[in-house]
Structure formats: C-alpha cells, structure tokens
Design brief:
Blueprint (H helix, E strand, L loop, with lengths): L3 H16 L3 E6 L5 H13 L3 E5 L1 H10 L6 H4 L6 E6 L4 H9 L7 E7 L2 E4 L4 H5 L4 H24 L1 H17 L2
Antiparallel strand pairs: 1-3, 1-4, 2-3, 4-5
Helix pairs in contact: 1-3, 7-8
Length: 177
C-alpha cells in the first residue's frame, strides 16, 4: 500500500504530465494479457505515445488540481481500469487504438482531451482517428490562401499574361503624344 507521501508524489507527477500536453486519451486496457499489453505499448511508442496505467482516484485528484482547464466531463469516465495515453498529435492514439482493435477487443476509449475539446465514449474513435492537428489545419489554410495568388501569377505568366501585357502596351502607345 502506497503511503500518503507516495500518493501525493504520484498525483503531482500526473499533474505535470497532463499540463505538459494538449492531448491525452483515457482507455480501458483490462483483459489484455501481458503479450498484448506489450504489443500495445510498442505500437504506442512507435507513434510517439506514452501509455501508463493509472489509479482512478489519483487521476481524478490530479485533474481536479489543474487550474484553468475544465476536465469535469472526463471525471465520469474514471471507473474500472484506466490507462492514460499522452501524445503530441490529437489523432495518434485513436489511430493506434483503431489498428490494435483489428486483432483485439480492447483498448476501449473512455474519453479524450484534444486541444481543449473533450470526446467521450468509444464511438468517438473513428472520428478522432481522422482529426487533423493544428499544424495540418494551418497548412490547409495556407494552401487555400495561396491558391488564388498562384492562379493570378500563372495567368499573368501564361498566354493570358501576354494579352495583358499587349493591352498595357497598346494603352501606353495610345496615350503617347
């Protein structure tokens, strides 16, 4: 049995880990044998995800101690065995879970925190697996903004550009005395 000091240290560590990321998933990995659990951890590591089993009471206390963020909806999912998956990309854990479940019944998603948004329930896996990250969305926006500019430039450089240049030259000649 862990002492009060050890529990406080575990809570403090969880607080630090949660504050250091914008993405974490809560999953039920119970009923996986040791080999399956090892395979899941390997899949997580390959995808830049850190997974660990946590006690619900300690995780609940850690989430409640973090100021400025409302994890309230996630607290209801803290029953039964819980593993927490920390990631940089919002869709990475969902992709790993989805792939792993092709051969196993678990892990089952309890909830996820992705860039201030809360997702509850296993039915969110499909949607989360295609969720774009901030960098991808910014890239899409830049591409959309660049597209009209590229069309104008290519138009000016192509045959239409010669027509525009010819019109400008004709107007200049017309105004010349």
């Amino acid at each position: 049995m862990a002492t009060r000091t050890e529990k406080d240290q575990q809570i403090a560590t969880l607080v630090e880990e949660i504050q250091a990321t914008n993405v974490f998933y809560l999953a039920d990995t119970s009923a996986l044998d040791s080999e399956a659990t090892s395979n899941l951890r390997r899949s997580c590591n390959k995808s830049g995800i850190r997974m660990k089993v946590v006690k619900n009471t300690l995780l609940r206390k850690a989430l409640e101690r973090i100021e400025g963020k409302d994890y309230g909806q996630l607290l209801d999912s803290l029953s039964g065995p819980t593993s927490i998956m920390f990631a940089e990309k919002g869709n990475a854990p969902a992709k790993v879970i989805k792939e792993f479940r092709k051969t196993h019944e678990k892990p089952v998603l309890k909830g996820a925190w992705v860039d201030e948004a809360i997702f509850l329930g296993d039915d969110q896996i499909a949607m989360l697996s295609v969720l774009k990250g901030k960098e991808e969305l910014i890239g899409d926006i830049i591409m959309l903004l660049q597209s009209p500019i590229k069309n104008v430039i290519s138009g000016l450089q192509g045959a239409a550009g010669h027509k525009v240049a010819g019109l400008v030259k004709a107007l200049e000649e017309r105004q010349a005395p």
